[in-house]
Amino acid sequence: MTPLRAKMIKAMQVRGFSVRTHESYLAAVTDLARYVHRSPDKIGIEDIRGYFEYLATERSLSGASCRLFLNGIRFLYRQVLDWPGFDVDIPIPYCPKTRSTRI
């Protein structure tokens, strides 16, 4: 386990995140690192924008999935790496709300 991953896990434990949130956030950060072939602490804003374009277009992820990935990555940069200026303007796919058809 890398020191950065251990630090992220510790930060989530301190905040009382659920096990499922741990898994989701770690998966998002791991996927980002694999996409850009670099450690997350060496990734820039343009890399992150490109990653989200890839998620929306090539992987066709829903808006909800993209937001989950964004929240995990945002947590890493704001809370773990203490990058307070991290605020990436990412276009997230729109998820129309479905209405119940019950009568």
Strand and helix layout:
Elements lengths: L2 H12 L4 H18 L8 H13 L5 H18 L23
Notes on the structure:
The protein is 59% helix and 0% strand. The chain is built from 4 helices and no strands. The chain has helices at residues 3-14, 19-36, 45-57, 63-80. The longest helix is centred in the first third of the chain and has 18 residues, at 19-36.
Describe what is shown at a glance.
With 103 residues, the protein is an all-alpha fold. It is 59% helix and 0% strand.
Largest sheet: none
**What is the fold named in CATH at topology level?**
DNA polymerase, domain 1
Order of helices and strands: HHHH
In DSSP terms (H or I, runs of 4 or more residues), the helix count works out at 4
Task: Please estimate the helix content.
Answer: 55-70%
- N→C terminal distance: 53 Å
Strand content: under 5%
- Kindly state the number of beta strands: 0
Class derived from helix and strand content = mainly alpha
Number of domains: 1
Shape: globular
- Overall pLDDT: 87
Radius of gyration: 15 Å
Highest-level CATH class: Mainly Alpha
Uncertain segments are none
CATH-wise, what's the superfamily?
A: Tyrosine recombinase, N-terminal domain
Q: What is the CATH-assigned architecture?
A: Orthogonal Bundle
List keywords for this structure.
single chain; 103 residues; mainly alpha; DNA polymerase, domain 1; 4 helices; 59% helix
